Structures are given as C-alpha cells and as structure tokens.
Amino acid sequence: MNVQILKLLAKNARMSNKELAVCTGLSEDEVIAEIEEMTSMGLIRACKAVIDWDKLDDGYISAIVDLKVTPKPGYGFEEVAKKVAKYKEVESVYLLSGVYDLSVIVKCRSFQEVSRFVAKELAVMEGITSTQTQFVMRRYKELDVALDVESTDERGVVSSC
Amino acid sequence: MLNYGEILNGTITEIQPSGIRKFFDIASTMQDVISLGVGEPDFETPWKIRNAAIRSLEEGKTYYSSNRGLSELRDEISRYMLRKYSLSYDPKSEILVTVGGSEAIDAAVRSVVNSGDEVIIPQPSYVCYVPIVMMAGGVPVIIENKAEDDFKLKAEHLKAKITDKTKAIVLPYPSNPTGAIMEKEDYEQIEELVKGTNIILISDEIYSELTFNGKRHVSPASVGSLKERTIVINGFSKAFSMTGWRLGYTCGPKEIIGQITKLHQYSIMCAPTTSQYAAISALRDCDYDVDCMMEEYDMRRRLMVNGFNEIGLACREPQGAFYAFPCIKSTGMSSGEFCEKLLEAKKVAIVPGTAFGDSGEGYVRASYCYGTEHIKTAISRIGEFLNEI
After folding, report:
1. How many CA atoms lie within 13 A of B279 on its CB side?
2. Cβ-based neighbours of B332, under 8 Å, separated by 6 or more
3. Which domains does chain B show, CATH number per domain?
4. Which residue of B has its CA nearest to A153?
5. Residue A137 pLDDT grade (very low, low, confident, very high; cuts 50, 70, 90)
6. Percent of residues, chain B, with pLDDT higher than 90
7. Which of B23, B26, B38 to mutate to test the interface with A (most CBs of A within 10 A)?
C-alpha cells in the first residue's frame, strides 16, 4: 500500500505510471504493482473526471435527499443504506449524525425525474419515515475543484526573487 | 539644467542596474510566453488568511500597530519559531515585524555594518545582498559556491575570505536560485570558524518551510552557540503564499533587534496592520494549507528535475526553495545567451544563472511555481530547442 500514490491519483487520476514513479521515487514496475494491489484491495475504486455539468444545457440535475430511517434490529441503518445505493440515480449515500440519518445525492436528467424517483422509490421504501429533498441550484466546487473561477496568472514573466 | 551627476548620492549611483535587465524587459513585453521565471507561489493566499484580513477591516482595525508589530503576532511568531525550529525568542524584545523579509535584510545589515566593514555573501544568491551592503557603506565579499559542493557554503572557502574587517556573513538558505540547503553539520563547521570573533550571521530563511526529502530546515541560530551572533530573517511570502502582503520578521539578540527597531521605526513606522492580522491566522490556522502546498511543490519538483535530466540538461535535485537549477554548459552557450535564444525561438522564459552572480554562469533557474501541465509544456519546448541548436 502506498498513500503517496493515492494522494497523487486523488489529485490527478491521469498521471501516468511513469510520472507517478518520478514523484514517488519508485520504479514504474513498482508503481504498477502498487496500483494493482491497491485496486484489488478495494482501496482504489474508480478513476473519474470532475465535470462541470452546469456548462451543458442538458447536463444533470442533482438533489440532496436527506432521509429519516427506522433502524432495523440487528442491521441498524445498513439495510436501507445498501438498498438505496442500488439505484442508478443515486450518486452517493452517507450515514449522518444529527436529525437525519442518511444523506443521498441523487443525479437525474430533469427535476421531474428526481421528484418521481424520490416519491416513488425513496419515500415509500420500508424503514424510511421521512425525506427532505433539496435541489442543487448551482455547483461551485466539486471534489476539491472550484468550478466557478477562471484564474489568470497576474504575476510577471520573470523575476529574480 | 541641473547636473544630477554631482547631486546624486555617489554610493547609490555606483550600484549598477542588473546586467540582465534588458532580458527581463524583452521577456516582460513578449506575448504568449510560457514562463518558468517567477519566484513567487502560484497559489492564492489561503482563504482563512484572507478572511482574517477582511474581518480585521470590517472591525475597523485600521490603525498603526506598535513599531515592533502587533503583540499578538509577535507571540505567535515566538511560538512558531519554537515549534518549528526549536528557537526561543522573547516576543517583547527579540522579535520585530517588518515589511517583507527585504526590509529585515536591509535593516539587519545597516544595524551592524560600519563604513568599510566587509560582509561575506555566498553566490549564486538572491540579488539584494550586494547592493544593500554597498548602500550601508560596507564592502561585499563574494564567495562562489560550487556545484560539486551542492552549492553549500563550505567552511574551508569561508575561512579564506574572513579578514579582520569581516563584520557579517549572509546565509541565504534554503537557496534561491540553487535549491541548496545547509544542515547542522555544515553550520557546526562554520561555528568553529567564527568562535571567538565578533562576526555576525545574517540568516535569510524566507524559504524555511520549503525543504524536501524529509529534511527539516535548520536555522544556524539553533546550532551550538551561534544564536548570540545570528540575526534570523523570515517572512510570510513564500511559505504562506503571501508575497503581495509584504510581511516579514526578524529575530535575534535583543541588543541587535533594538537597533533594527530604531531603523524600522524611523523609516517605516510599522508593518501594514491588515497584513499583520492576516499573518496571525497564517501561523495559527494554516498548517494543513501549507502541507498541501508542500505536497504539490514536491510533486512538481520531481517532475521538473526528471524532465530536465531527460532532455539532456543535468539537474541536481534541489533540497529546498522552489527552483530547479539545471546546468546548460553542454550547449556551449552562456546562460544569458541560452535564455535569450530560448525565449526568441520557443517563447519560454527562464532566468540566467548569472542574474544571481557570476558563479551562476553555466546554469539557469527554472521555478516550479506553476501547474504541472505548464511545466511539462515548457520543458518539452526546451527539449525541442536543444534538438534544434
């Protein structure tokens, strides 16, 4: 296991094995072996791009749906959480502290789809006692990446300091 | 018309404008340049720090601070020096907040140098030391550090330059432009040399947060008995990405800091109050931000050094600061010529090693204060340039 590789990949999953080798001081073969090992251990689950869907007219609509759940004896919240996670529309599921028990990020192609999904699938699911749906109006930052800023380099071209 | 030649201060007119000024002027006006030329972080100041400044303005904290700097900030600096560098300084008498490290360097030199005193300056190094010594009426004595010594200041070379007129030695480590650092053993040898003398060490540690490969910065003040003769200079520009805030500080024996405080009091009054409130947050709340920036610098550093070596420019691994200092002797060109031709042919701007003293000849300075894609593009263009010459 190599945390340095994980950190580098978390920042930029497109780093080549060669670049990872340069940055960690390992050989390329060692990097490949580490990544294979960490993938088979389930540490590295996927490598995906961060996309600003708001830039597209037909991008995705997201909603944060918080759920109150009656825990099942012997299973707690696990059963409901795992069932919720099975849906294609569900991007993330988190167990929360506080008033709500689960927080679900739902991703659909339209407001109607989100509404239908919450009403027909989540609200009626056994164990879920109430839902609170909050639509995402705009994304400002996603997975460490600021989406609403175009930065320009205002520093000079050369300096001796 | 007035004869300005007769009017102007002779010491100042004697200071020559930098020889590479022309190159800088051309580079600055050229369009679409890919630059590795800038010596300041590309990261914005961490938001917590900016927010602390905004809050201080909202609260109307817009007055002069005490000459020495806000006592709250000096307390934080004192704690920071202790936890980072095992150095104990009294915030009331041994710490002064300045306008950047630059003011501190100038005031430190002026506080100890009398007319005709010699100040030893290792090169290649940042450009300000020689003119500052001259403006103080001192005589700069240059030591040319060598690549084979990893650009460290070696005691045997220092010994040859020490005379009965030597007043001070500038220690600019971690080094701009070479990336060299000094370690405990290096300073122990220097301690042996200066023991029993009145020689002062002016230690410019502005890059102290930027050391790599698990090697922590060592301040000469923390080595043996050197503290009593060391003026430590540091600041917020490089570590916290706060160049535009102009805030630095100096720590040292109260006898010296007292004198520096007089210079500061009569020329500056106090460092900008808003920046001082920001700096309190920098020292208190921003270890994580600094660690994240360091991880990013380290990645870029490795990619850059590897990139230069791959295209055929021998590049030692810098241990500190945020510059690579590859050797261009294999091209047969001078540093100045190399940089001018590279700029003209490939629109890549890097800084000739000679900008940092004659001993920088044969080297160029490339900064990794740039994103990785930018660095890769610049190095691949330099590679093309090498193939075409």
Report:
1. 35
2. none
3. 7-45+288-388 (3.90.1150.10), 47-285 (3.40.640.10)
4. B42
5. very high
6. 95
7. B38
